[in-house]
Amino acid sequence: MKRKVCVITSSRADYGLLRLIMLGIRQEANLELQIIATGMHLSKDYGLTINEIESDGFLVNRKVPCLNEFDDAVSISRAAGSAISGCAEALKELQPDIILLLGDRFEILSAAMAGLLARIPIAHIHGGELTLGAFDESIRHAITKMSSIHFVTHEVYRRRVVQLGEIPERVYLVGSLGVDAINSLVLMNRKEIENELNIKIKAKSLLITFHPATLDKESPERQMNHLLSVLEKLNDTTLLFTMPNADTGGNAIVKLIEDFVQKRENAYAFSSLGQLLYLSCMAMVDGVVGNSSSGITEAPVMGIGTVNIGTRQLGRIQSQSIINCGTSQVEIEDALKILYSAEFCDKLRISKNSMKESGASLKILKVLKEVDLRELILKPFQDIPFSLRGV
Description:
The protein is α/β, with parallel strands linked by helices. It is 42% helix and 16% strand. β8 (204-209), α9 and β9 form a beta-alpha-beta unit. α1 (12-27) crosses α7 and α3 crosses α4 (106-117). The radius of gyration is 21 Å and the shape is globular.
């Protein structure tokens, strides 16, 4: 009998990383791929990216809509509740043997809760990481505690998952799925990008993604205004915006970007570029600007500099290609000067990223095929000996 692996995806970001694993599951004779799509995948406001999944030839077994047009705390909580009930119904119908989740979105937390209550083992990717400036920080660790199998990208993250009480033998150090994604694609060149997007790209260009830092005291709208005040001075630079996630305060950022782009011939905004276009743009630009995790993980692999603004990604392991700055206009301006400086460009050429090894997808697939699923739900808490705690 085939082992049924249910992949639950909520956004363009997690699908881009899960895609190769999904292809691998589909090709395995002893595995059956099931897909539940929820969250931003089903929203026109966020590019209706379920179309990307289906255009890649995947069958989406169940669709769980949960988002509405509002982005305040109550609306996000309601969306999380809708995602729990919708995923619960989908899992009851599909009856998977194991669930595969990635990341730290609230929709993924909802999926984990539904899976836990249904007593289905959960395998989680990207546990142990830190993003101290956002709710994602707490959500990620909560998903870790609901999961029985863990796929992590770095030794530091592996130790952190074990520190949370997880069984060391069930924590697998696999490396970065972002590296796999980059290595699997034939990226588009500048002319192909221009033709596909119907735009003209200047000699200088930046790729900008700014999400709400949901735990910051300063509002996302105010932070975005600071960034746009800096960018409006760059008339000689093509500005490529990708829209923020469905988080508290995200709608205000979208409105600011739309107004900014409407008034400027050198600026363009996209709800979703898709994996190929996004990574192709990243490989072409002078730098990535904002607070997206892609500036921390994928950009360094490509040798592209990142201006990482604010606290959202605070705590992640970083490459030398990342320039951290505050959210004020002065700090952002100074960071952009560093990005274009000869000294930084020289350092960029020789900087070494700590996550360049590929093969994460195959390592995860091997575990999904071979792991013994019996007694995974009932998991003990792994205490760390006092001698290792420094007390």
